[in-house]
Design goal:
The protein has 13 helices and eight strands. By secondary structure, it is mostly helical. Helix 8 crosses helix 10 and helix 11 runs antiparallel to helix 12.
């Protein structure tokens, strides 16, 4: 995701420097687009007024904010495109506000395809002023950009999206396993049902993975598991337990234990086809 997003910032003339926890990855990317690499995170502050972050988990984001805090300048804008909890987003916003900096929680959806094409859906929480300032940056990475309100609401919108993703991949995998058991020609089925009422982005874009039994990482099982745990915790705050989340987490844990945690979530097809192999 980060490579595609940074590439689109570069195409719009907005990318001045990059940093990655894996320095080799940063240099490999920068060589292709002739961009500056900083080897220590605080150095990047010297190159930008706006900083875009995209990391895997709450702890990663909090660590980055902690490293940046002593070096940030008043007025700098930090845009976080990671998927973390709304609580973490609000904590970061509060910490950075005390330094005179703006923070937007701006998680994204659209997969590696959307990141590459610059067509991501971006869900934003934060002040009106920060959202207005961020428009050129957000517009370089996404097509649908929505300001939901105060800090944390971007992450709440993303959590909602992750529940939808769980339902969509569950339905797509189960339907494809059923079709396979029925002996249907899966290529024709995908072409036809992609234009039907029951279709979804996940069916159209990930059913081919299932047909070919090949699951290149687009949205890794481990990461969706992490996101659904965030959704579970948020639901608990309302006294609710969501069956779809619980079922998907149980199945993801089985896939991870079987060594499939770094595959795309369409690998759920493995478990669904096994349902039809019962004696």
């Amino acid at each position: 995701m980060g490579t595609g997003m940074a590439s689109n910032l570069h195409r719009q003339g907005l990318l001045t420097a990059v940093w990655n926890r894996n320095t080799a990855k940063a240099y490999s990317f920068a060589e292709r687009i002739e961009c500056t690499v900083v080897e220590t995170l605080p150095q990047i502050i010297n190159y930008c007024d706006a900083l875009v972050i995209c990391v895997s988990a709450d702890g990663d984001l909090l660590d980055i904010v902690t490293q940046l805090e002593p070096y940030l300048r008043t007025g700098q804008l930090i845009i976080d495109c990671s998927t973390v909890s709304a609580v973490t987003a609000r904590q970061c916003a509060s910490r950075l506000s005390s330094l005179g900096c703006d923070f937007l929680d701006a998680p994204v959806s659209g997969g590696v395809e959307g990141a590459r094409l610059g067509t991501l859906a971006i869900m934003v929480g934060g002040s009106d002023n920060a959202f207005s300032r961020a428009q050129p940056v957000l517009g370089a990475m996404g097509k649908t950009i929505t300001h939901f309100g105060e800090s944390g609401l971007g992450q709440a919108a993303k959590a909602t999206n992750q529940i939808l993703c769980a339902g969509a991949i569950q339905a797509a995998a189960e339907a494809m396993a059923f079709a396979k058991a029925e002996g249907l020609p899966l290529d024709k089925l995908i072409d036809t049902l992609s234009n039907g009422a029951g279709s979804s982005w996940y069916f159209t874009n990930r059913a081919p993975n299932m047909m070919h039994k090949h699951y290149p990482a687009g949205f890794r099982v481990r990461l969706h598991e992490k996101d659904l745990m965030i959704c579970r915790d948020m639901a608990k705050q309302h006294g609710a337990q969501l069956p779809l989340i619980e079922m998907t987490l149980l199945q993801y844990r089985r896939l991870i234990d079987q060594g499939h945690g770094d595959e795309d979530i369409s690998t759920l097809f493995r478990l669904k086809t096994a349902l039809f192999d019962q004696p």
